[in-house]
Amino acid sequence: MPEVICAWMMAICLAAGAAAGVAQATVPAANPTKVIVLDRVVAVVNNQAILASDVDEEIRLAVLDPGQVGLGVLTPQSALEQLVSRALIQQQIRQEDAQALEPTQSEVDARLLEIRKEVPACIHENCATAEGWKVFLTAHGLTQERVENYMRYRLLILRFIEFRFRQGIHIAPEEIEAYYRNTLLPQYAPGEAIPTLDEVSPRIQEILLQQQVNVLFDDWLRNLRTQGDVEVLDPALESPEAPSGAGPSTSLRSAQDDIGGA
């Protein structure tokens, strides 16, 4: 019975903290006046809480983000921006047919295997082997389940972008030729072998398509942020770059790039 009462009182504490804008889990201390905060709400996105632990985990997961390579450690402010964008997108997907977009476990496994072979941090720690992967997860404070959920989300976003933004976009032959002459050809030094327009047309078409998708996605996400109710409760995590509307996060951008490698 004492255990039940303690659990009940903790639930009341959590609910009261959330209503005040800050949720905190506590544990009894030797000094009854001292409260040890285990977690707290740092932002709210349309009534969906983002915790400080979510920000910490996002920073740890960045080691698996190809788009983060070479950019250094993900800052807490950028991590929160990614989480806000993620919450907005997931809420939107739930309003549509989320089940139709959900990737299979085999797709998640396949993408994770590619990441284990491609991401520099993984290559250095021999993640391709089961033992090396286990050591890597432990070293970065990650679990197999959390990483799989992260990969599942990235694939879900790819599928959503494909369904929502790529459909109906048409790239005219004149646009492909203009890109070839004005952008591609100047990249070749005199005397270098230059591919013909026919050889590179499919690749150029995909690049131009990706550029248009990025513009549409940026505008859509910015509108979601503007129209939604996003409140950052921790001033230290405020992002000066996007106070009212944020473009795609690094992880979302790299997810888009996976479509066409643009």
How is this structure best summarized?
This protein has 262 residues and is mainly alpha-helical.
What is the typical, i.e. mean, pLDDT? 79
Please tally the helical runs, counting DSSP H or I stretches of 4 or more residues: 11
Largest sheet: 3 strands, antiparallel
Strand line-up across the major sheet = 2-1-3
Q: Helicity, in percent?
A: 55-70%
Distance between the termini: 61 Å
Q: What is the beta-strand fraction? A: under 5%
Tally of separate domains = 1
- The rounded Rg comes to 22 Å
CATH superfamily membership, which one? Porin chaperone SurA, peptide-binding domain
Question: What's the helix-strand series?
Answer: HEEHHHHHHHHHEH
Q: Could you say which overall geometry the principal axes of the C-alpha atoms support?
A: globular
Give a verbal description of the structure.
60% of the residues lie in helices and 5% in strands. It has helices at residues 2-19, 52-61, 76-95, 98-101, 105-118, 120-124, 130-139, 144-166, 173-184, 197-227, 250-260; strands at 41-45, 48-51, 230-232. The protein is mainly alpha-helical and 262 residues long. A hairpin with a 2-residue loop joins strand 1 and strand 2. The longest helix has 31 residues, at 197-227. It has a three-stranded antiparallel β-sheet. The relative contact order is 0.14. Helix 2 (52-61) packs across helix 3 (76-95) and helix 9 (173-184) crosses helix 10 (197-227). The model is unreliable at 1-27 and 242-262 (pLDDT under 50). It has a single domain, classed as Porin chaperone SurA, peptide-binding domain (Triger factor/SurA peptide-binding fold).
